[in-house]
Fold:
Amino acid sequence: MTIKDVSTNTIKWLIAIFYVSALLVQVLVIMKVIPYDWVNGGMSKSYEVQAVQSCISLVALAGLFVFVLKMLTRGASSRKLRILYVITLLLLIGLTMQLLGTTFERYYLSLLLLLGVVSHGLLIRHIRSAQNNR
Structure:
């Protein structure tokens, strides 16, 4: 099996798992299940500061999830594909930052972001392949 053999349905599942897991982490931080100093490199001064940041992250992640799923179902223009490249690059930068963060970020969130980089990379490959077959 090669990268070319990955189906659209598999890519949808990988992306869904990534975004649902990322959203869940933020919800768990807001609910105080995950301590606020385990995320954000442990740099948040208080729970209240981290709760605001987690709420903003929830909105941003939900918006990105909708954007990416629409690309999967409707296809993508070259502009949207460039945006997807930027999202993937930001996930890769985030992965690097997680590897330098707290123990929780290194051992859990870095794996989560690796899933994000891989799934978005597969989506880029899928979209480019579909555009080339036209």
Summary: DSSP finds four helices and no strands in the chain. The two ends are 24 Å apart (CA to CA). The chain has one domain: 3-132. The CA atoms of residues 99 and 107 lie 8 Å apart.
